[in-house]
Amino acid sequence: MSLLDRLTSDMKEALKSGEKVRLNTIRLMRGQLKDAALAKRDDLTEDEEVAVLTSAAKKRRESIAAFTEAARLDLADKEQAELDIIKTYLP
Predict the structure, then answer these.
(1) What is the average pLDDT across 65-84?
(2) Quick one: which of 29, 50, 64, 67 has the most CB atoms within 10 Å?
(3) What is the pTM of this model?
(4) Taking a C-beta distance cutoff of 8 angstroms, is the pair 87, 29 a contact?
(5) Contact 83, 22 (CB under 8 A)
(6) How far apart are CA 31 and CA 78, in angstroms?
(7) How crowded is residue 37: how many other Cβ atoms within 10 Å of its Cβ?
(8) What 3 state SS string does 2-52 have?
(9) What's 75's DSSP letter?
(10) CA distance 43 to 25
(11) Is residue 1's pLDDT more than 80?
């Protein structure tokens, strides 16, 4: 099962269970993977899919640091929740 298929399946489960943060994060990851595939004009390899998700995780870590420094713990917590979801799809 490809990562995109797994994300689609998990998105359906999150939709049924009402997990909004997980649903939004999965939708965002699917969009990033599809954008990368369109930019490449071909399907992504497994390594390229992991690279896209690694980049998304890195952005979350940077955001957490910036929000924590700015004393915006509510936004840092939101980014941390998204990072935790992204990590479940990384090897």
Answers:
(1) 96
(2) 29
(3) 0.89
(4) no
(5) no
(6) 19
(7) 16
(8) CHHHHHHHHHHHHHHHCCHHHHHHHHHHHHHHHHHHHHHCCCCCHHHHHHH
(9) H
(10) 21
(11) no
Residue with tokens 């390899």: 45
To the nearest 10°, report the CA torsion of 71, 77, 78, 79: 80
Amino acid occupying residue 10: D
Give yes or no for a contact between 67 and 75, defined as CB atoms under 8 angstroms apart: yes
Both structure tokens of 37? 């595939």
pLDDT of residue 7: 94
Q: Is the pLDDT of residue 2 over 90?
A: no
Radius of gyration (C-alpha) of the chain in whole angstroms: 14
- pLDDT tens digit string along 14-23? 999 999 999 9
**Which residue, 87, 79, 78, 85, is CA-closest to 61?**
79
Residue-wise pLDDT tens digits, 32-67: 999 999 999 998 899 999 999 999 999 999 999 999
